[in-house]
């Protein structure tokens, strides 16, 4: 595969206005809201930027729940073991230990702060089980509306302090690039010192502006819209990951993409955000049948329908190929209409809108992109490899998920690591360890990809680094991505201008390019990365792939045998162990 080259900044107008804050938080899911609320009382001024309205991100759509060892017969050690098993040998044990030991306390804090989770008759939290978990440890709300309740509770806390001059919220704003300080002698960007952003039209400020900050906390969510079909909202165009890369940050585990096994199949050609049918439905006993009515999971894995998601997704794809079908069926009919309506009201209503009765009908399902286990490499406090930059939630690569996220660990990760990141950022701001720097433009030509290319890029990603990958498919994807005009605003006859659709499409293209390169590099199958030409896991690949953009725009891939989080400090490229 030819050398990958990526631009280090977007083509955009010069900022027409400038403001400042001690800390800029980008994103308003569980991670962003948690960070902003914790920072509000600890630093003089926080600015929260969100791409849509508050609560419109991926957290809102989380159905399954939030995992924590809260039952007297459960333990953090058992949760730790289940997380490592799902992660395919690539989890960072230190990061997992942070997650499972601090997680129960963070969930209890949410309850104390107003989150209304489902309870049993005696008032204790109702706990259920999902795939990969060896115990009932999933806290849920409204049966299958946990994310919506978490968003509601956090936004209620934020609304209570809206009049506080120490916090400002800008909605409907797309962060374009991270601002960085003076470069070093090798041309690498200096510390992150703010963001440029574009207020899309309904925010409190107009056009492109700059926000200077002592630190930036990215909580921008995932990369779902890189693919043709995804459970992610429309805002999930990989903006945070791409911006961090352009600013010189390292990214890792990018090739590990989780495809949810049971997303409602709505016909060929349907794209955009698709409704998922939560794993919790299988947790309650629903079965997977192929189009011949055969229950195939018991012969695939000892846990059958409750096997880890990657196992289930790959089994479904193989079964679809064997039967010549484009879907399988989820069968919950034996669970009873009353139970299903009470336990899964949101899912039942959504399926009902499509003419499907969960209690009486087989539900057609197929895998679709759901979660990204990789992201911006951080330490145990969310600190990235470029100083001044922190990443939390799905955009981050903390080491918790490894090759495959354990069900319902994502909300917990956002909660725990946002808390830790905000605590460290506040301490560093207070101590003077994060001075405000003057931004300097990064070298190289700016980039812009025409919005009309987006569907082509999504198709390339679906067919190349999709559910099942091959060397031939990945090579073809790399060639197709390299052929895309990345300075479309300068190409005669191409209608492209620096605006929201083009900026998002540029981010989608850059993320697809990195994903394809790392998926081609890893010649084995592990977790969310399945190579049909290398179907087995290979012990030689028990390592992580880390990538970053050099000053000349090239993107070297490093084979890392360690994990930066284990050393609790950002790791520059030169110190990464290589194989």
Describe the structure in your own words.
The chain has 579 residues and is of the alpha/beta class. The protein has a domain at 261-367: Flavocytochrome C3, Chain A, domain 1 (Alpha-Beta Complex). 30% of the residues lie in helices and 17% in strands. The chain has helices spanning 30-40, 76-86, 93-112, 146-159, 239-246, 279-283, 309-323, 337-343, 345-353, 409-431, 454-463, 471-482, 500-521, 564-567; strands spanning 18-26, 46-49, 66-67, 127-128, 138-139, 167-170, 173-180, 192-199, 207-218, 229-230, 251-252, 257-264, 272-273, 287-289, 328-331, 363-372, 375-377, 389-391, 396-397, 544-547, 557-560. Strands 1, 2, 6, 7, 8, 9 and 18 form a seven-stranded mixed beta sheet that branches. Strand 8 (192-199) and strand 9 form a beta hairpin. Helix 1 (30-40) runs parallel beside helix 4 and helix 11 packs parallel to helix 13. It is globular and about 65 Å long. 58% of the residues are buried.
> Biggest sheet, open or closed, and with what strands and sense?
7 strands, mixed
- Number of extended strands: 21
CATH topology heading of the domain at 261-367:
Flavocytochrome C3, Chain A, domain 1
- What quaternary form is this? single chain
Estimate what percentage of residues fall within beta strands: 15-25%
Show the helix and strand layout.
Layout: E1 18-26, H1 30-40, E2 46-49, E3 66-67, H2 76-86, H3 93-112, E4 127-128, E5 138-139, H4 146-159, E6 167-170, E7 173-180, E8 192-199, E9 207-218, E10 229-230, H5 239-246, E11 251-252, E12 257-264, E13 272-273, H6 279-283, E14 287-289, H7 309-323, E15 328-331, H8 337-343, H9 345-353, E16 363-372, E17 375-377, E18 389-391, E19 396-397, H10 409-431, H11 454-463, H12 471-482, H13 500-521, E20 544-547, E21 557-560, H14 564-567
Parallel strand pairs: 1-2, 1-9, 2-6, 9-18, 10-13, 17-19
Antiparallel strand pairs: 3-5, 4-5, 7-8, 8-9, 11-17, 11-20, 12-16, 14-15, 15-16, 20-21
Helix pairs in contact: 1-4, 1-10, 2-3, 3-10, 5-13, 11-12, 11-13, 12-13
């Amino acid at each position: 595969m030819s050398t990958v080259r990526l631009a280090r900044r977007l083509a955009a107008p010069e900022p027409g206005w400038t403001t400042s804050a001690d800390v800029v938080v980008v994103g308003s899911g569980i991670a962003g809201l948690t960070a902003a609320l914790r920072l509000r009382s600890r630093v003089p001024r926080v600015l929260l930027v969100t791409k849509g309205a508050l609560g419109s991100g991926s957290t809102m759509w989380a159905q399954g729940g939030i995992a924590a060892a809260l039952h007297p017969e459960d333990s953090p050690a058992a949760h730790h073991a289940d997380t490592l098993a799902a992660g395919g040998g690539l989890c960072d044990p230190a990061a997992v230990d942070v997650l499972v030991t601090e997680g129960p306390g963070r969930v209890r804090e949410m309850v104390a702060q107003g989150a209304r989770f489902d309870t049993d008759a005696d008032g204790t939290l109702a706990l259920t089980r999902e795939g990969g978990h060896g115990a009932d440890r999933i806290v849920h709300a409204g049966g299958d509306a946990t994310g919506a309740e978490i968003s509601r509770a956090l936004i209620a806390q934020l609304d209570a302090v809206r009049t506080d001059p120490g916090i400002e919220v800008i909605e409907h704003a797309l962060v374009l690039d991270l601002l960085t300080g003076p470069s070093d002698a090798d041309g690498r960007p200096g510390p992150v010192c703010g963001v440029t952003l574009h207020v899309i039209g309904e925010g409190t400020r107009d056009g492109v502006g700059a926000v200077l900050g002592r630190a930036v906390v990215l909580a921008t969510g995932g990369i779902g819209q890189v693919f043709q079909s995804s459970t992610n909202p429309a805002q999930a165009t990989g903006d945070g990951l791409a911006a961090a890369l352009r600013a010189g940050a390292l990214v890792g585990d990018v090739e590990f993409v989780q495809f949810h096994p049971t997303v409602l199949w709505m016909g060929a050609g349907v794209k955009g955000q698709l409704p998922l049918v939560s794993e919790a439905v299988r947790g309650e006993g629903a079965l997977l049948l192929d189009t011949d009515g055969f229950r195939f999971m018991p012969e695939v894995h000892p846990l059958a329908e409750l096997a880890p998601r990657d196992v289930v997704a790959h089994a479904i794809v193989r079964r679809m190929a064997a039967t010549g079908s484009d879907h399988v069926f989820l069968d919950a009919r034996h669970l009873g209409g009353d139970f299903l309506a009470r336990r899964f009201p949101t899912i039942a209503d959504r399926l009902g809108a499509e003419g499907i009765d969960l209690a009486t009908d087989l539900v057609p399902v197929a895998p679709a992109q759901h979660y990204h286990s990789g992201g911006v490499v951080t330490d145990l406090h969310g600190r990235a490899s470029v100083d001044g930059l922190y990443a939390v939630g799905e955009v981050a690569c903390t080491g918790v998920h490894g090759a495959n996220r354990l069900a319902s660990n994502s909300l917990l990760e956002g909660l725990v690591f946002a808390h830790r990141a905000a605590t460290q950022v506040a301490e560093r701001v207070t101590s003077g360890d994060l001075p405000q720097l003057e931004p300097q433009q990064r070298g190289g030509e700016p980039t812009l990809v025409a919005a009309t290319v987006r569907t082509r890029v999504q198709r390339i990603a679906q067919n190349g680094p999709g559910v099942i990958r091959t060397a031939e498919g990945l090579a073809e994807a790399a060639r197709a991505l390299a052929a895309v005009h990345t300075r479309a605003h300068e190409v005669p006859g191409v209608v492209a201008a620096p605006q929201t659709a083009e900026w998002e499409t540029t981010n989608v293209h850059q993320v697809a390019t990195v994903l394809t390169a790392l998926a081609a590099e890893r010649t084995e199958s592990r977790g969310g990365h399945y190579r049909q030409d290398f179907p087995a896991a290979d012990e030689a690949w028990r390592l992580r792939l880390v990538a970053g953009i050099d000053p000349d725009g090239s993107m070297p891939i490093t084979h890392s045998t360690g994990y930066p989080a284990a050393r609790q400090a950002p790791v520059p490229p030169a110190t990464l162990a290589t194989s």
